[in-house]
Design a protein that fits this description.
The complex is a heterodimer of chains A (433) and B (244). With 433 residues, chain A is of the alpha+beta class. Chain A contains twelve helices and 21 strands. Chain A has a domain of 228 residues: Alpha-Beta Plaits (2-Layer Sandwich), CATH 3.30.70.2520. Chain A has an eight-stranded antiparallel β-sheet. In chain A, a hairpin with a 6-residue loop joins strand 1 and strand 2. The radius of gyration of chain A is 21 Å and the shape is globular. Chain B has 244 residues and is α/β, with parallel strands linked by helices. In chain B, 46% of the residues lie in helices and 18% in strands. In chain B, strands 3-2-1-4-5-6-9 form a seven-stranded parallel β-sheet, sandwiched between helices. A two-stranded parallel sheet of chain B has the order 7-8. The radius of gyration of chain B is 18 Å and the shape is globular. Classes of the chains: A alpha+beta (433), B alpha/beta (244). At the A-B interface, strand 5 of A face helix 2 of B.
Chain lengths: 433, 244
């Protein structure tokens, strides 16, 4: 079998892999049985060294809808279907994803293996909160049906288990009823971190909340940014034109980054200029508008291959969470460290997580503040991340393995008592095999 | 216009890609394959996303008699039939093992002909319908590397040629497709030159459009028409000394 060079969205690291791409789910069992070590992989929209292995089962052809009840909103699909494809099918029928990350180009299986969270975590939890059952091909090559009562241990080990328990082949979950495909969005311009965290606390009743932060500002303006709040618009919220087709799918506007940018393009000055423009684009303190769901949830999906702006060497995303208690001080320390290192990051994203499901013990979220930062890969990256890891550790936080390529093992939570059959570059780096 | 489409060899890559092109003018889709349980997910997917009903039929092209009884009652309902089933086989194995030789001939020629005969008669009777047979450029001239497959496909092409001439007079159209190299499961282990290799999506789209326009013989990529023109015209005295 021919090998190909693969990497996830951060373009770092890369690995030579044999990629099996079964067309039919029945082929998965045989492949798992035959291979010593293998890993399922979806669309590669995670960032670091998770979902990379020398032998890969790509689920991308296992992308069929198996059942969709338009009364209850329960849908069952094969694991390789993209969230974007699910939306195109369900939105016209009045249903939205119960939880969605910031890109819709991930697979359903990936959503479960990473137990993704979204802007509504504080209100509606992780993706797994809405999963009813799934099927998993385990190390012996057999298919296992799992839910909260049947094979419950495997169920919870698979949720956020990063593919280490087997190959997820199908998932059944509950969609969310919507009246329209639009979002009522309210953007609030925020002066600094104190104001930001206060506003997060006050907006607990809002379904969706997330903030963009300027990570290079120091002193009194440290943590300035824009808090973005949103609700699904009701029919009554729409103007006459939109009312004609309230469940319309957004128009596709596709920009592309056709080539890798040279590595030097994205420097501190570019980030500063970008942050300035982004912050000052909004004149008023509060800006309310009705926008389509793509604009609200997936602004970056409009630019194909945006990861190429970081150059061929790639980038890493550092996402951590700190417990709410003492979290503010931790965030300040992190922002100081980044400011001192002069490492700019576009689109630093801050979010307040809510309560979590105790059984989902391998899921990333915990009640507290999560921040996601992008760093271009340089010789200093490991150093910087070591410094950040120190702070996260001191504040008893953890990091998100779906983004990780550099962090230490003590900061991550994944099952260790699993077979060595399903292995990843990440599991090897962290010494979990 | 309501129409019913049947794909035989529905687990093949091109047939799978073809399913996604089928539009809502189609009212019912028949998928025929040996491992029909593999197609269950595709069936529900098409039914849910396209609101087209789908029937799955289990059939092995090489079970001649069984196929005739299976297809005779269904054939009059069908408006378009695509025959995708094929078997490349192992040339060297077929040189010494008659089972392999027979499998190649029976899948690509005998079995194909017996099934399409049923449809030809039904379509002639109702004076409408389209038959699309997927043959191969390998049938354009026998070559040392794959002449069992090539000769079976040559026979299949000649069969389609003749049937086209006969049925044209009663309003039934027959189209022959000659894909060149295609990146599919059948050729996964072969090292094919990228420039002249088509993806199954591209092949499906070419076939789908050509069937709408009622073309006679279609090469999936034009370059193959020229490649085969050259290969066919190499004098035998030279041809037998070279290996292509």
């Amino acid at each position: 079998m021919k090998k190909e060079l693969i990497s996830n969205w951060g373009n770092y690291p890369q690995i030579e892999a044999e990629v099996f791409k079964p067309d039919f789910v029945q082929e998965v069992n045989g492949l798992v049985k035959k291979e010593q070590a293998i890993l399922a992989r979806g669309n590669g929209r995670c960032y670091g060294d998770v979902a990379l292995s020398k032998k890969i089962i790509s689920t991308l052809s296992l992308n069929k809808v198996l059942a969709f009840d338009i009364e209850s909103g329960i849908i069952r699909c094969q694991s390789g279907i993209l969230l974007s494809d699910i939306l195109a099918i369900t939105v016209p029928k009045g249903f939205f994803l119960p939880v969605t990350p910031g890109t819709k180009f991930i697979t359903l299986g990936g959503a479960l293996a990473s137990d993704v969270h979204g802007k509504n975590h504080h209100a509606e939890g992780c993706f797994s909160n809405h999963v009813l059952d799934f099927k998993l091909v385990t190390a012996d090559g057999n298919t296992l049906a799992c839910n909260r009562t049947k094979n419950a241990v495997i169920f919870w080990n698979t949720v956020g288990g990063m593919g280490r328990t087997g190959v997820i082949t199908e998932v059944c979950f509950q969609l969310k009823k919507i009246e329209t495909s639009y979002i009522t969005s309210r953007n609030i311009k925020v002066k600094n971190l104190d104001e930001m965290l206060d506003l997060f606390d006050q907006s607990g009743d809002t379904t969706y909340s997330v903030a963009w932060m300027d990570c290079l500002k120091k002193g009194a303006h440290q943590g300035r940014g824009i808090l973005m709040l949103g609700e699904h618009a009701t029919l009554a919220d729409l103007d006459l034109k939109k009312k004609k087709n309230p469940l319309a799918l957004p128009k596709k506007i596709k920009l592309n980054v056709p080539l890798f940018f040279p590595g030097w393009v994205l420097n501190k000055f570019a980030v500063k200029a970008f942050n300035f423009l982004f912050y000052n684009k909004q004149r008023k303190k509060v800006n309310t508008s009705i926008i389509d769901y793509d604009k609200f949830f997936y602004p970056l999906d409009a630019i194909l291959n945006w990861n190429r702006i970081y150059g061929k060497k790639g980038f890493t995303q550092y996402q951590f969470v700190l417990p709410k208690e003492g979290g503010k001080e931790g965030l300040k320390e992190i922002l100081d460290t980044i400011g001192n290192a002069g490492e700019g990051s576009f689109l630093v994203v801050l979010k307040l997580f809510g309560k979590t499901e105790p059984l989902a013990k391998w899921s990333f979220p915990m009640e507290g503040y999560t921040l996601a930062l992008d760093f271009k890969i340089t010789l200093d990256t490991q150093d910087l991340i070591n410094q950040l890891d120190d702070i996260v550790q001191r504040y008893k936080g953890r990091i998100y393995l779906s983004k990780d390529a550099f962090s230490r093992r003590s900061l991550s939570n994944v099952p260790t008592q699993v077979t060595s059959k399903f292995t990843s570059l990440q599991a090897e780096r962290l010494g979990m095999i | 216009m309501a129409k019913e489409i049947m794909l035989i060899g529905a687990t093949s890559d091109v047939a799978q890609a073809m399913v996604h092109l089928i539009d809502r003018k189609t009212t019912h889709l028949w998928l025929v394959a040996r491992n029909v349980e593999r197609l269950e997910p595709l069936k529900t997917h098409v039914e849910i996303t396209k609101a087209i009903s789908v029937s799955l039929l289990e059939s092995d092209v090489c079970e001649f008699e069984k196929n005739i009884t299976l297809f005779e009652p269904i054939a009059p309902k069908i408006d378009e039939i695509y025959f995708f089933a094929g078997y490349l086989g192992h040339q060297e194995k077929a040189q010494t093992e008659s089972a392999e030789t027979l499998k190649i001939i029976n899948t690509n020629f005998t079995g194909a002909v017996l099934i399409l005969n049923v449809f030809a008669e039904a379509f002639a009777k109702k004076k409408s319908g389209i038959i699309i047979g997927i043959s191969s450029v390998a049938g354009d001239r026998g070559r040392s590397s794959n002449y069992f497959y090539g000769s079976a496909k040559a026979g299949f092409s000649a069969y389609l040629d003749g049937m086209r001439q006969r049925l044209a007079k009663v309003g039934v159209h027959v189209m022959t497709v000659k894909p060149g190299f295609m990146a599919t499961r059948m050729t996964r282990e072969l090292d094919l030159p990228k420039l002249i290799t088509a993806s199954s999506e591209k092949a499906a789209s070419v076939i789908f459009k050509a069937a709408k326009k009622k073309k006679n013989t279609v090469y999936v990529t034009t370059i193959w028409r020229f490649i085969m023109l050259v290969i066919r015209n190499i004098p035998e005295a030279i041809f037998k000394r070279i290996s292509i």
